[in-house]
Write a structure and sequence with these properties.
Elements: H1 2-5, H2 26-40, E1 45-49, H3 56-66, E2 71-76, H4 83-93, H5 105-121, E3 125-130, H6 138-148, E4 158-164, H7 167-172, H8 178-183, E5 184-189, H9 195-208, H10 218-228, H11 232-248, H12 256-264, H13 267-270, H14 275-296
Parallel strand pairs: 1-4, 1-5, 2-3, 3-4
Organism: Alteromonas portus
Pfam families: AAA_22 (PF13401)
Protein name: AAA family ATPase
Length: 301
């Protein structure tokens, strides 16, 4: 593998969300600030949506790491839960013993409320963070509404942050969950990265992993931004394939051949190339080769 060849301490473009690689670009930085501001004001529901691969899970984990000791983070990465399973999972995150099978669900709900009251008296606030929230069932959403009813005369006992794909907005537009929709006080939609942000993102990941920023040139990064449309996951996939190809040829840095081959080996990028874009891409590659020949001269002439 190319990790040792390029002197990386870890793989720079792994798809596993790693907060060490968090890149404080505008989309994620703004989202993090919105969430933290909403939490500081003890608002009920907070919603963050974004297309597949825009970095929601990484942002989710960054949020958990960023919370102060005032907050107790309860993280549920798996939303495919029945209402009872959701209640049990939440209780487990709060440190409530759910091992007794004889404990009735209503008793468990009371135990959750008592735990939240205890935390409030200690000056702490529970935050329930749910990833892939677009997959929550209607009944599970109703359970979240019941959780959000837990409050004192002055403030909420629980704050809920939902991370999900755009389908979450579609689900919340249904009249049957209008009470939840009306309780969402802050929303943020993650956008894809701009070309300049992709440039910085790639350089950041290369150097954070201990490698050289020159492994993938700025010209190649602009091309990558075009074909991936700034989707972080696709950028990672393409860059990983580029480095694999460069390593396979023993090259010290990537070139256009490695990059074009990596793009056409990635279906989500290849499908995005309409004929007009393909012509533009070919023109860019030809110009790049012509520039090199002009600079170094053409052998034999």
């Amino acid at each position: 593998m190319y990790q040792g060849f390029y002197h990386f301490t870890e793989m720079p473009f792994s798809l596993t969300p790693n907060t060490d690689f968090f890149c404080a670009l505008a989309p994620h930085n703004e989202a993090l600030k919105v969430i933290l501001s909403a939490l500081s004001m003890s608002e009920g529901f907070i919603k963050v949506t974004g297309e597949v691969g825009t970095g929601k899970t990484l942002l989710c984990r960054k949020l958990i790491n960023h919370l102060s000791d005032k907050f107790v983070a309860c993280y549920l990465p798996n939303p495919y839960l029945t209402p009872d399973e959701l209640r049990i999972a939440f209780a487990n995150e709060l440190g409530i013993d759910t091992g007794k099978e004889t404990v009735p669900q209503q008793g468990l709900h009371s135990a959750i409320e008592n735990k939240l009251l205890t935390l409030k008296k200690e000056g702490r606030q529970a935050v329930l963070i749910i990833d892939e929230a677009q997959s929550l069932s209607w009944d599970a959403l109703e359970m979240l509404r019941l959780f959000s009813n837990l409050e004192t005369e002055k403030s909420k006992l629980l704050q809920i942050v939902l991370f999900g794909q755009p389908e979450l907005d579609n689900n919340l537009s249904n009249p049957k969950v209008r009470q939840i929709r009306q309780r969402i006080s802050f929303s943020y939609t993650l956008r894809n990265m701009t070309s300049a942000e992709v440039d910085y993102y790639i350089g950041h990941r290369l150097t954070t992993a201990g490698g050289s920023e020159q492994l993938i040139s700025k010209g190649l990064r602009a091309f990558i931004a075009l074909v991936t449309r700034g989707t972080p996951r696709l950028v990672n996939i393409v860059c990983h394939k580029i480095l694999l190809r460069a390593y396979g040829q023993g090259k010290e840095s990537a070139n256009w051949q490695h990059t074009v081959n990596a793009v056409f080996d990635t279906d989500d990028c290849k499908r995005r190339l309409v004929p007009r874009q393909s012509i533009v891409i070919l023109s860019i590659a030809v110009l790049a080769v012509a520039s090199v020949l002009h600079f170094y001269g053409t052998p034999g002439l």
